[in-house]
Amino acid sequence: AQSVTQLGSHVSVSEGALVLLRCNYSSSVPPYLFWYVQYPNQGLQLLLKYTSAATLVKGINGFEAEFKKSETSFHLTKPSAHMSDAAEYFCAVSPRNYGGATNKLIFGTGTLLAVQP
Amino acid sequence: KAGVTQTPRYLIKTRGQQVTLSCSPISGHRSVSWYQQTPGQGLQFLFEYFSETQRNKGNFPGRFSGRQFSNSRSEMNVSTLELGDSALYLCASSYGASGANVLTFGAGSRLTVL
Questions:
Q1: Does B99 touch chain A (CB under 8 A)?
Q2: Best mutation site among B43, B44, B98, B112 for testing chain A: the one with the most A CBs within 10 Å?
Q3: Which residues of chain A have a CB within 8 Å of the CB of B31?
Q4: Chain A within 8 Å of B2 (Cβ-Cβ)?
Q5: pLDDT at residue A76 in the model
Q6: Are the CB atoms for B65 and B76 separated by under 8 Å?
């Protein structure tokens, strides 16, 4: 069965430091991959998605992620953290090998990012 | 354009009661999905509708049900509420249902069961 693993339930960085949030997926066929962000008391907002075009995907707010098939990874990075980046981040997959069309997402357990001044 | 609207935003119920949550998708979107978010289980897929047909269902008991209307608005119902049903219920909409579609989420309905 498809699964997503996010290493590190809590990550703390200093303002201006590199942000690296890790995501690995398990699938024999590369799935569609997404990163979503959730701010307190809000729904999920899409940061970026990978659907088999360029392996380096640029998203909103300066975030980007690189799809590495050999490592089954899709880590999220941002060169310089800002206080407003403090939120919970979710990696998600939409498997390609479903029998029919579906938007079903399988989410990782999330990583809570804290940004220290 | 307006986003995904979920009502009510907050509600409190007691065990044994039932609840109905509503979701109005973005205009033109035909696919609506529902997710349950809890601290213990994280985000779990409940069901997905496309043009009034249930396309997919998650691993939840039959107490959880849903439907989609001809205007794409969707409702989910939970009967015989249990304490463990306390959660944030998120609705998401998209235009198509190909897997590569981006889901736009609403702010959620936070259900507390006492």
A1: yes
A2: B43
A3: 103
A4: no
A5: 98
A6: yes
Sequence-ordered list of residues with C-beta below 8 angstroms from that of B18, at least 6 positions apart, any chain: B77, B78, B79, B80, B81
- Closest-CA distance, B2 to chain A, in angstroms, reads 15
Using alpha carbons only, what angle is made at residue B88 by residues B61 and B21, rounded to the nearest 5 degrees? 70
Taking CB atoms and an 8 Å limit, are B31 and A43 in contact across chains?
no
Burial class for B92, CB neighbours closer than 10 Å (0-12, 13-18, 19+): buried
Q: Which helix (H) or strand (E) holds B87?
A: strand B87-94
**Per-residue b or e along A4-39, where b marks 16 or more CB atoms closer than 10 Å to that residue's CB:** bebeeeebebeeeeebebbbbbebeebbbbbbbbbe
Kindly provide the residue ranges of all beta strands, DSSP E only, lying in chain A, ordered along the sequence. Answer: 3-5, 10-14, 19-21, 24-26, 32-38, 44-50, 56-58, 64-68, 73-78, 87-94, 106-107, 111-116
Distance CA B100, CA A72 (A): 18
B15-59 confidence digits (pLDDT tens): 999 999 999 999 999 999 999 999 989 999 999 999 999 988 999
Closest residue to B98, CB basis, from A44, A45, A101? A101
Spatial distance between the Cα atoms of A62 and B78, rounded to a whole number of angstroms: 40
